[in-house]
Design a protein that fits this description.
The protein has 145 residues and is an alpha/beta fold. The protein has helices at 5-21, 33-50, 69-81, 97-110, 124-142; strands at residues 24-27, 56-65, 93-95, 114-119.
Length: 145
Amino acid sequence: MGDSSTGQRAARVSVERAARLGDGGLGAPSATPEQAARQLATYEDACRALGKAPGATALRRDVYVGETAAEARAVAEPIIDAGYRGFDPSAPIYGSIDEVAAKFRALGEQGYSDIIIRHLTSDHEKVLGSLRRMREVRSAVAGPR
């Protein structure tokens, strides 16, 4: 969703349509944290107006979980700085296990129930390492069971 009022209006209409016709809402992967919060609020407001309970609220995020924060920055920042998919640099999530878990918890506190991930890098070994570390992120976000 861009900064234009036409783009914002179109995004609002599609989020309201999801509330009316669907079982949940899906936030845009390119949304900044502020835009993601607005998309979620729009969906929840539309559900309330329709007398419906909100369903699953998912947000797609492009991620990289590094071995360390420095390694994550070394992998992710050149990709983002090159204009990754035209996304605002604040949309992708990268960092150490603890940093990514903290960002996911913040999205949960906003009201998102699920995060759908795609990896920032296409380097096979880096993706596999990030996926292994994502298991630890998930445990950290879930907390003690």
